[in-house]
Amino acid sequence: MAESNSTLEKFFKSYRDYVSQNPQLTSDIETSVKWISYILAARIDDSSVWSELVYSLSNLLVLFNDRIIAKSRNLASPTITSAETLKTWLTVLEYSEVFIELSCYKVLGKRGKWAIILSTQILKCLARLRLLLAHKENIVESPLIRPLNRNNLGTEQTNRRVEKKDAGFRLKSGKVIRSLSSAADPRNAHFSGPRPVVNGGIPQSSNAVLYEDKALLGEILYILKPIVHLSTLIAVGNKKSWKPYITSFVFDALSIYLIRSSTDPRQLTVNQKVELSQRTISLLMYLLRSPFYDKYTKARLNRLLLSLANSIPLFSTLLRPLAEYIPKWQETYFYMWSN
């Protein structure tokens, strides 16, 4: 047993060293794993569970490797807060939820699937509300932990070395003497706490925006939307009904309006701006959600793809399988209980 543990420790150390020293090559491997999931989905019948398993594992691998790289380059926070722990587990759940749903459907049938969906969304809702209200996360991003921007790692390390060099020097007594170049301009002097490192690997200023009134209400509406959608769906009892669809759309649109109309964009971080833009663009996804998709989009989109496949022979090998697989994607991914 001791030998087994020792072997595992050596393997993990070798893996950790390899990932931390070769971030770009690691990214290429992660991308290859994702492509395997796409190939499984496109080439093998009834492979949705397996392709989703591979895709989920690839996302979890990215999350795990990002942690290794961030820690090896001193980009990670030295202390792990309860908010960061909650974000990590919520990110793992978001990466795995589609695979969990499909697996439960295969094993337990429709009732099991819907029980898991409801349980998952309630858990996510409670966790997001805690981040918003207890930990003051403001705009709760999705995914909560964004992938590390590994292209900026070299620049970040150079900047850190320069900052350390310019900061000053230490006497034998242990006292640190600051250099003149590191001294702040007295005309602009102000106190600021330590700058947190965002997931992209670039330090940014702390969140200055504290939600009040309309913006807070908008974020709460966005978090509650999946639960409200599911509740409406259960009350109506018809998956193709317009009531859950319209309710979900109204919650999304109203949430975006309340946040944008009462928040100064200059006070938002880059990630928060990206999150708001993604939420706005995601409104277009309602074109691919039932019942709108079934009544209006499906036939038109299918005709467009087949027309392009017939008129552009080179694209036919790509567009024809795409036209056949879109209904499966629509049923699996374009639902409204998830953010």
From TrEMBL:
Record InterPro entries: Pex16 (IPR013919)
Main subcellular location of this protein, as a coarse class: membrane
A cellular-component GO term for this protein: peroxisomal membrane
Keyword Cell inner membrane recorded: no
Keywords from the named record: Peroxisome, Peroxisome biogenesis
GO biological process: peroxisome organization
Compartment list: Peroxisome membrane
Recorded family membership: Belongs to the peroxin-16 family.
Protein name: Peroxisomal membrane protein PEX16
